[in-house]
Amino acid sequence: MHLLLFNIIDQIRSLGWNGAFNLLRDGVVLGSLYSLVALGYTMVYGILKLLNFAHGDVFMVGAFIGYGVLAQLGGPLAPALGLAPLLLVMFAVAMLGSGVLGVVIERFAYRPLRDAPRIAPLISALGVVFFLESSVQLITNSTHSEYSNFPVFGPLFTPMFSVAGNPVTVVQVLVVLTAIGLMVALMFLVYRTKLGKAMRATSFDREAASMMGIDTDRVISATFFIGSVLAGAAGVMYGLYLSDTYFFVGFLYGLKAFTAAVVGGIGSIPGAMLGGVLVGVVESYAGGYAGGQWKDIVVFGILILFLLVRPTGLLGGKAIQKV
Amino acid sequence: MDETTPEPLLELKSLSMAFGGLKVIDNLDLVVNEREIVSVIGPNGAGKTTLFNLITGIYRPDDGEILLEGKSLVGLAPHTITQRGVARTFQTLRLFLNMSVIDNVMASQYGLTKVDIVRSMLRTPGWWKEERQIRARAEKNLSFFGQRLMGYRWSQPAYSLSYANRRRLEIARAMATEPKILLLDEPAAGMNPVETHEITELIAKLREDGGYTILVIEHDMHVVEGISDRVVALDHGIKISEGSFERVATDPKVVEAYLGTKAAATK
Amino acid sequence: MSETPGIPAPPEEPPTEQASRIGVDSWVAESEGRRSRTPAALLARGWESSPDALKLLAFVAIASSVPFWMNEGDLFIFGLFTLLYAALGLGLNVVVGFAGLLDLGYVAFYGIGAYAYAELSSSQYGIHWPAEATIPIAMAAAALVGVVLGFASRRLLGDYLAIVTLFLGQAFVFFTNVANPTIAGKGFTGGANGIPQLDPLTFFGYQLTSTKQLYFFLLIVVTLLATALYFANQSRTGRAWRALREDPLAAEVMSIPVNRLKILAFVFGAAVAGLCGAIYAAIETAAVSTNFSVSVLIIIYAIVILGGFGSIAGVFVGAIVINCTFEFLEPQNDHPEVKRWLFYGTIVLLIALMKPWLKPVLVLAGTIGFGFVVHAIVAATTDASWTSGVPVSGGRWIGHWAVIPTGTHANFDNYVYIGLVVAIVCTASLKGWWRTAALVPTLYLTALAWENVLALNGGITAFVLFGAMLIGLMATRPQGLLGTARVEIV
Q: C-alpha A9: how far from its chain's center?
């Protein structure tokens, strides 16, 4: 234990301010991805009080759909499209595909269980996790799919600008800006449109909302669609940025995104965004200073701490138990 | 009822509780004597159920004392408070719905019984003996309600009972903890006039035959009139009136709390 | 029942001809349904009315006969592991079934038991304690972690509890695999390789080495375990667990110390898992952390859920079904023809259960016809490599019915699989005769997927099936095969 502490201090000293900045940058980029996935958890939890374990796998499927589009459009050496249209098609197909997947999951795994004991949808979610992961494992023959095999993405990894001599690459800017754009769109949707109003009403009290003429089943489907679209986009960005896509990735990233949702306060949309960035930055620093094998355990440690000490998260309200 | 000087069984001393900034119970004093039936009335949101939650330890008071037979209950876990002799029913009915009727009444005897799990797994003579006692006590408490909860109903799941029978089962379940004081939260809510009348008689019988002290929240004034030795009226967590039913029911403050200032003025 | 003085005699059960009248108890009214005479209903009633001791006796009798007609290899994978999974299921059933706590860290306790045995009965540190000492220590170690976990999460319920316990499972794998602290000059858990060369189970100098010995030992363990847990469930503790599962707050107010009982449930589950872990490690003669992954967790969950939460008999049924399915799906299986019969047999059986009788006949005939037509078209329009494949588990006629290509055909198998999933989703969304019609291509696609993908990757297929089973079971029969249906809000 002492040894580890010395190592960390050593590492902080040797990396210096530049190292600290680089870790912060990496953390924010990673955190944007977590935020996008966390939004799906938080929205579904807000509306159904259901922990959608399968959401991480929707993210994973999104990454694979993006890869599939790439592979179909000419393969590694002969891309049929330029970089920008290629990216557009990838995002569009992956987001749509994930969205549909989310709706199908809701329709078959959760809708029949609306009034079932609370443990039932959780088990069903566990079933979805295993179904999706094993299916992808079957289809991909358990191999890793690497976005970085496609030279067409080379320009994405060139520095765009630098801060005090530390480069920031195009893909990093792209990830953060896309994430911000999607979140702004989501905020607009939730707080400024009729559908958003219906969603908020449904999450407040589903029964009352349905008595007020809101088709809650459709609102719930829409919520799953939107959450899954965001996860799909995050999947493609994950592929672009970190490249290594395989069937188990959804479990780990899903759990971290869930941590983000809990840290921010589950049910709260701004909370999920904040939590995502926070978790990303913490993970980045833990990995940079203590060593890569520690980062997961640190993130989950935070999760446990929050669940045990402040389960309502940073931005969640305090719940009063009604008797 | 015997004519000796009444002993205070439950005492609340300047009890206070707030949710956020809202005072739900404000500096409340209340005494319930041995074998007395006290009714708590008041408009919705007056803090009646919160009072029960405070006594049973579900909430912790911000300030004040709760004494049972002179010993403080503040800070104890709800199950310890029940073991000390306070049992309650719930306004919203919280039966163990998927357990059988008799299992409901047997489960609530946990605090009275001793045989640990190892002895249960070995089925020692102690287990047999205690299990027979538990069963007998459950049957005794269920039979308190006449034919209502008897016979083939014992093995039925609680969810198959009618609403009125669920209320009765809640009372039976509370009785099976062998309490000194029973807290009944709106025992007549949702009942038809015949059932309400039955409940009124039942509460009287609970004291006469069962020897319980009873604190009851009730909205139905006929029930309150029929059962109460004393009535306490709450409004916004403050005790606004206390005394016999006639006194409290005609107290201008109570009328005002229920009907508003104008009505009180015209009266 | 009513010998206690002062209890009025129970009223007579109202006669059933009044069943549908207003004012008659719904329980009595429904008794008509309970008296139906279909074979399934008779079987179910016979099962319900026979005493539980008789059921256990029947199981023990049948299970004891197994080693006398099964060969050693089959006994190992089908017999021994079914019993081991049954024992694991019994432990999980205490936590999830009796007390209603969703414990996703259960598999970590299993691992702790295995590693505890490995540390104390192997050449790792040269400690060779006998099993009568090691197994109780393994159980105690797991139970101790159970206490810690239960205490830490005493205020959590439902999904949050699930996450915290899931973390325990992850932390366990991290600890054994990555952290692997050095103690007494050696990696404590042996890292990714685990701890090899464990001693066989030795009780008071008597060594259990053959599969038969292990089988009978496990049979005794499972029988004692089932009896003990059955008795535990029928005690005040069992009732308190059920009460806490129903409504923790009401249970607390009814004098039940909810936190203590939750911890007790965790401890019981953990101790049983620790026992299983120790036995498992001794059987495998190694403790490797990958054997305690989430996949094993899902197998145990599938067992308990298929059997039905809270049902001890259900755990046995679940263990037999799940373990045998799993083992039959393994690619290196000695019984390919059984595998084929199981697959096609199950499908035909499921079709046969449809009503009215015309439907199954039409669907079956339609599927067979559809297959030959498709096969003929494919054979006529493409080159021979598209139809020259051999069915995985034998059966020559299948090769003339299902399209099985040889060599690589541009993701044909993936399209078949994805097509199957889409077809199932579409079929499930349709109603009436449309659904019946959609069944024909769906069933054919199922056969194609089986021959081209699923049967070739049995290990993965098993998890696809388990996942699908969990979803399907929750939607149609959440109480499992032998559980009691539960009502949430009335």
A: 31
